[in-house]
Structure formats: C-alpha cells, structure tokens
Amino acid sequence: MKRLDIFNEKVSVFKKIFDPTPAGENKIIDLVVGDRFAERVGRVRKETDPERKAMLKKTLPAFTASGIFSGRNDSDLMRHSGVIAIDIDYKDNQHLVNYGHLKEIISSVPYVAYCGKSAGGEGYFLLIPIKEPEKHDEHFASLRRDFERCGLAIDPSCSNVGRLRFVSFDPEPYINRDAEIYPFILKDKKNHREIPQVRPAKADPVKLEEVTAWARIAEEEGINSPFVYDEWFSMACAMAFEFGEGGRDAFHCFSRAFPDYDPEDCDRKFGEAKKAVRETGKHHPTFTRIRELFTKYGVTAIADFR
Questions:
Q1: What is the predicted pLDDT for the residue at 200?
Q2: What is the Cβ-side half-sphere exposure of residue 167, based on CA atoms within 13 angstroms?
Q3: Which helix (H) or strand (E) holds 126?
Q4: 24-27 and 10-14 as β-strands: parallel, antiparallel, unpaired?
Q5: Structural domain for 284, as ranges
Q6: Is residue 125 part of a domain?
C-alpha cells in the first residue's frame, strides 16, 4: 500500500492542556523530533512528588496528533492528519518483562511511523497512519484488538479524534518514514435501536455554577463514602453530557475529594466520558444524576447552609 510521510502533516498546538483554542499549527516532525522541549520535559521527569509532577506536566504545550482543530472538542475537527496517536502506559503493561525494550519490539510493526517516550518518561506513544480518517474510531478499535492479541494494552481514551497529547522528548525515538498505512477497521456492533437522547445544545451556566460549588465543597470536606468506580465514571459522563469540555475542571475538583486522586487518570477518564456521551443511541447520566450523587455524599446538605 502507498506510504504517507506523516511527519510533514500539520496539526494544532495548544500552549497548555486546558486552553480552549489552539495557539497555532506545527508540522508533526517539529513536535516529536529534536530537543526543543528537552529541558522542560526533563524537569517533569525529575520531579518525584506526584502532584508537583502532574502540575509541571500541565504547563507543557500539547498538540492534536489527528489533525487541525478550531477548539478542544472532537466536533471541532477541521482537517484530519491521517494519523492516530496511541499511548502504551507502563501501569497497564506491568506484565511485560521486556517493557523497557518496547521500541525495539515495535520496530517490527510495519504500520508504526513513530515510537517515543511520553512526557512522564514511563510510557510510550506511537503515531500510526490510517487509510480512512473518516473512520477514525473503527481504525482505533481494530488497532486496540491487534495490540491486545500481542499482549499490549493501549490507552482506550486515545480513540478520541481530538485527544490532546503533551509534547515530549526522546533522544533516540523509533522513526519509520516508510511506515505502511494501517488499512483495517473494526465495525461498531452496538445496538442503535434505542431512541437517541438529546444532548443540551449549550451548557447551562447556572447548573454549571451550582455543580462547581458542590464539587468545591466535596474537595474541601472530603468524601467519607468508599470509592465506587461506577459512580465516579457516572459523574464524569453526566458532567461531560451536560457541560462538555466545561465540566472537566468540576470533575477534577470532585475527584480530589478522594484520597487516591490521580490527575492523569482523572483527565483520561473524563476523555472517555466525552467519547461515551457521543454515542447518541445510548442514554446517559444527566444533571439529575449529578445532584443524586452529591446528595448521597452529603454535599448538597452542606451547600444548603452556606
């Protein structure tokens, strides 16, 4: 199949991970090759305190490897780059005895154009050219299955076409300018017979203000109830459904109420929630669910007396 030199493709660049709009465009090669970001990434990797490391990481520029965007949402895609970026995190692949040699292993995969260390230094990210950019999700589903067959777990939130990734530095990246274009797709077999749920056309600022206030109370007071993953993800989905990207900060605030808060996991989970609520054939948690959970945790009762 015809090769595509992805490195000359332009993508959107954001000064910081939470910026609502891109600062400009750059060629992929300028973002993944060279030592332009070596000093800043080095400071992140040297930091031993998890919270400080996460805060330092958030100051790094970020880019949308899958194309040029007008904003942060998947719907803001203006032109696809023909590329999917995939994360392979150490925490998800601790079963691999040769994880440290992943670049050498990956070099045998003809579809990988790039493999280098992530900003944190413990993971890797890959760039893979795809045949049909309009079928981004189906390509990702197929790639995920293929990697799983090889014993590798990839980050599921990378399926988002608008996923931002931090700039990084690897002095010895794996580069294959002649990488083959990945042609395979895995069609969605989900049942779409349910009546579509209508997502709010615009976030309600009054509701967002109220939810943010609840989240801040939760963070200040802490949540004494045991952590329940399903409730946590339900909250993420409800905030993503009601407020879109505007709910991300409130979800982080809410998540900090739990002792095992991890900024990266929280960010990843909100990305998964945004993807989940795009499935219009499903029903999703709404503001009612947000209020229900904050009531369960005793937060709304505190809010009534403030």
A1: 65
A2: 27
A3: strand 124-129
A4: antiparallel
A5: 205-303
A6: yes
